[in-house]
Amino acid sequence: MSKDYYAILGVDRDATPEEIKKAYRRRAMKVHPDVAQDDAEAADKFKELGEAYEVLSDPNKRAVFDRGGDPRGGGGAGFSGFGGGFAGGFDFTNLVDAMFGAQSGRGGPRSRVRRGQDALVRIELELHEAVFGAAKPLKVDTAVVCPKCQGSGGEAGSEPVTCSTCGGQGDIIQIQRSFLGDIRTSQACPQCRGYGTIIPRPCSECSGEGRVRSKRTITVKIPAGVSTGNRIHLEAQGEVGPGGGPAGDLYVEISVRPHETFRREGDNLEAVLRVPMTAAALGTTMELITLENEWADSDPDARKVAVEVPAGTQSGTRMAIKDRGVPRLRGGGRGELGITFLVQTPTKLDERQRELLRELAELRDETEPGAVEAHKQGKSGGLFGRLQDWLS
Predict the structure, then answer these.
(1) Model-level pTM greater than 0.85?
(2) Is 306 exposed, middle or buried (0-12, 13-18, 19+ CB in 10 A)?
(3) Residue 151's pLDDT is what?
(4) In terms of Cα–Cα distance, which of 231, 209, 50 is closest to 144?
């Protein structure tokens, strides 16, 4: 044999089935293509690992391997049947394998124990949970080990028996005569479905599958700084495989709900602060309730911040407060808290307020701003000239 399945799994030749299962789970977590993304050979290693587990977890295949045979397929006759004008017949499956590189169906009985599928679920977070992290309960509906038969697939005391149709081979050979001679093809045994054994009394809970559907709740630890589209990888939290095989992995995809005050831009948080017209003109200090106010574990002193509004502040002016944004997933520190000022013009004025504003307009020579602007063409003339003068 060209492959040493014991070495691939890293177990001794006298390893127990439980030791083989544990070794497979441990190594599969390291070489899974979604985990070992930097390893170009991860997919091949994972495939080879699955092949080793398939052989060593099945008693029949393991016995064949220990005797030096090929547990995954074996006819070595090749084209020997071509001798004598094809009179002896030939193995059609071997010919197809040689021409197209296909895997012969005659690989021996397949194991009832197989790895489960990976699963993907989505979870919605509030903005403060995505920014500061959280521990969220998550309900998942996946396959779990049957609690009645513990994955064996049979009732108590019911052991699998050799299939009488295929003799435990897992597949059957069909012979058809043609001008080339006898053409032999193989297919999975319809009686045992390729397992080579039959469970006389299947488990009434799982119908011999070794697993059942069940809803369970797990706690997902959300790291600080995640955003919509990020995925959290939970090893061996997916579906249990047939026959109580190793569980697949669970991927949790993040979706963050919009916030009424703050908007996220990369590692920055952005907010709009509405400033009264008089405060923007004269300058003032205002308080902004921060996102930390929604996080129970935050420092009370960080739940609000004093914002200095300089005199003459215009709408659209932005100021930034460092290290008050989103924690970076990779690397230390946090982004900025950006604050954009929106100057609010009063819409409801009493007579006294109107009188004061008219007086201010007269003092500033702004009673007819449109007429005054029309005569200030600027050095270059026209609208662009006025913009250029204003910017200078």
Answers:
(1) no
(2) exposed
(3) 93
(4) 209
Residue 376 lies in a domain: yes
142 shares its domain with 193: no
pLDDT tens digit sequence for 302-336: 999 999 999 999 999 999 999 999 999 887 899 99
Asked whether residue 109 is domain-assigned, the answer is no
Is the sign of the CA dihedral 56, 62, 68, 74 positive or negative? negative
Average pLDDT for residues 358-381, to the nearest whole number? 66
Read off the tokens for 338. 């950006």
Contact 103, 186 (CB under 8 A): no
Q: Which of 234, 257, 280 is the last residue of a domain?
A: 257
119/249 same-domain check = yes
SS3 128: helix
- Mean pLDDT, rounded, of the chain: 83
Structural domains of the chain, count: 4
User: How long is the chain?
Assistant: 392
Closest C-alpha to 141, from 238, 208, 244: 238
Residues 216 and 248 in one domain: yes
| Confidence at residue 35, expressed as pLDDT on a 0 to 100 scale | 64
pLDDT at 98: 37
Q: Is the Cβ–Cβ distance between 89 and 176 less than 8 Å?
A: no
- Look up residue 7 and give its DSSP letter: H
What is the per-residue pLDDT for 66? 82
Residues 231 and 306 reside in one and the same domain: no
Q: Quick one: 223 and 325 in the same domain?
A: no
Give per-residue pLDDT as tens, 159-218.
Answer: 999 999 999 999 988 877 766 667 778 888 999 999 999 999 999 999 999 999 999 999
What pLDDT is attached to residue 210?
A: 94
Q: What is the domain-level CATH number for residue 275? A: 2.60.260.20
Residue at token pair 């299947």: 202
Q: How far is residue 98's CA from residue 76's CA, in Å, rounded to a whole number?
A: 12
Residue 244: DSSP 8-state: G
- 37 with 133, same domain: the answer is no
Boundaries of domain holding 213: 114-158+199-257
Q: 90 and 139: one domain?
A: no
Torsion of CA 264, 265, 268, 273, to 10 degrees: -70
3-state secondary structure 105-124: CCCCCCCCCCCCCCEEEEEE
The answer to whether 310 and 276 have CB atoms below 8 angstroms apart is no
